[in-house]
Amino acid sequence: MTVLDAPVLVVVDHADGALTAPSAEVLTLARSLTSGGVTAVALTAPDLPALARHGVGEVVVPDLAGLAPEVAAVAAEAVLAAVERTRPAAVLLVSSFAGKEVAARLAAALGSGAIVDATGVEVAEDDGLVVSKTVLQGTWETTCTVTRGLPVVAVKPTSVDAVEAPGAEPAVVDVPVEFSAAAKAVRVVSRTPHPRGGRAPLGEAKVVVVGGRGVDGDFSAVEALADEIGAAVGATRVATDEGWIDHAAQIGQTGVTIAPRLYIGAGVSGAIHHTAGMQAAETIVAVNTDPEAPIFEMADLGIVGDAAQVLPQAVEELRRLRG
Ligand SMILES: Cc1cc2nc3c(=O)[nH]c(=O)nc-3n(C[C@H](O)[C@H](O)[C@H](O)COP(=O)(O)OP(=O)(O)OC[C@H]3O[C@@H](n4cnc5c(N)ncnc54)[C@H](O)[C@@H]3O)c2cc1C
């Protein structure tokens, strides 16, 4: 496989001071693309032990001069300073809402191109990057490439399995940044972290258990199965509109788009507005009392039954098998 000679720069995210799982995935992908080493750029205090475990040789820490990294203009200009310092062959980020905006701003500043929601990246014979992504609500698989300037690619969480490649603790390089008036114009006056609970964030989870109208207001069986298998909990719009679960759990056209390895839907009919946000899931399991429910047309495994009975049976069987 062809690899790049120059380093790949990865914008790494942290949550509660720790490197996030999607950033570990992007670092794994970056290592596969280059023989020139992986450099990270961190906009908050870097988690050096985790970066060392993921083979990062150097971490660039831009001086934000007290500005907030949540402001996209601040983040993009800080990453631009890291690009100028590192001269990488490509920049990779996590394809979160924030990551996509930073990717777009960075590419605009560089006069190059950005590809977001990537599910895979390879190096072509001409050293260009061939990027795969699904489009049109997960119905088409495409490949694309940035044809001008430094490629900026935002990679969708769960597209890659994170693999560690332990090395020495990375060197930390502080870089100054000349912020524009636009970046300096926003001041963050307060922050209220969204309560995360113990489960993985929906957009990053490899396994998601979803409840629809069929759970009839009771998410306890969905949550019990999710906790048993280390999954995130999602919902249809009916369930969130009814107030059975927070709106942040809504999957679909007007909610979160997910592409987990495993989707388990309980009491979900499979309406197009919902499936638009989950049909890229690798394996789909559906539990529904109606054998004619549309979700069975896309399910790899369909169980005709009452979710309130089937899910607890699954939990019981899993516990039995684990001894
Ligand atoms: C503009 C627009 C945007 C929308 N955006 C979204 C979106 O982002 N996300 C989204 O989800 N929806 C969205 N919707 C709503 C969407 O069209 C559907 O109404 C919704 O997804 C249906 O949710 P549901 O499957 O929970 O409910 P239903 O369609 O009512 O299906 C409930 C299912 O549960 C089954 N069931 C009943 N009892 C049980 C039981 N005990 N055990 C097992 N199965 C049982 C039934 O057989 C049925 O198939 C949108 C709609 C519009 C108009």
Automatic annotation (TrEMBL):
One of its GO terms (biological process) is fatty acid beta-oxidation using acyl-CoA dehydrogenase. One of its GO terms (molecular function) is electron transfer activity. Signal peptide: none annotated. Its cofactor is FAD. Binds 1 FAD per dimer. InterPro entries: DHS-like_NAD/FAD-binding_dom, ETF_a/b_N, ETF_a/FixB, ETF_asu_C, Rossmann-like_a/b/a_fold. FAD binds at residues 213, 236-237, 250-254, 267-274, 288. Keywords: FAD, Flavoprotein. Residues 8-192 form the Electron transfer flavoprotein alpha/beta-subunit N-terminal domain. Heterodimer of an alpha and a beta subunit. PANTHER family: ELECTRON TRANSFER FLAVOPROTEIN ALPHA, ELECTRON TRANSFER FLAVOPROTEIN SUBUNIT ALPHA, MITOCHONDRIAL. Belongs to the ETF alpha-subunit/FixB family. The electron transfer flavoprotein serves as a specific electron acceptor for other dehydrogenases. It transfers the electrons to the main respiratory chain via ETF-ubiquinone oxidoreductase (ETF dehydrogenase). This is Electron transfer flavoprotein subunit alpha/FixB family protein.
